[in-house]
Amino acid sequence: MDSHFQMKLLVIVSLATVASAQFSVQHHSEPFFLKPTNFRRIRSADSGVAVDGTLGISEYHYSWLHDGKKEYIQSEAAAYCNSLGTGWAPVNIESQEENAFVSGVIKSHRLDWLWTGGQKDGSCWKWPSGSSFDGFGWSHTGGFHSPQPDNREGNENCLAILNDFYRDGIKWHDVACYHEKPTICERKA
């Protein structure tokens, strides 16, 4: 074979190898999470606030990227989000897709936990936006090995997402509002 033909053959084999690697089937033992978008340099068109991720019409701002990794009690987390401007509030998880998105953020940023906007009102859980609360993300366990919400401390009126704290994956837990955690702020664009 001449060297020109060998070179062409080498290029074709190399391209085929790269293409094959890109489309190979991969098996993962971890659950599927939507990969969060990262738009740290993007500013919300309306508010000028740094937007760290988007999903559908929602913009997300991750407190720990902008406040020196400060943690807040739940009311302070809400105040932080509200201080960003009109429409900003702690995240309301309104769909399985949004739950997967937020879980992906927690996983990719290696967070132990974070606040949502969910709070107990009497015997019902509600989002501040007034959207329906389906409760599809509750953990099957907690401090007393009871399914969530369990109101273990007697005043667990705020909804946090914990990252495998009880070896249960990234799940919702009712938590006393005085605990300190970062938050994800959300705004409908």
From TrEMBL:
Domain C-type lectin: 75-186
Cited SMART domains: CLECT (SM00034)
Top-level taxon in the UniProt lineage: Eukaryota
Keywords attached to this entry: Disulfide bond, Signal
Gene3D superfamilies linked: Mannose-Binding Protein A, subunit A
Pfam families for this protein: Lectin_C (PF00059)
Signal peptide: 1-21
Stated name of the protein: Lectin C-type domain
Organism: Halocaridina rubra
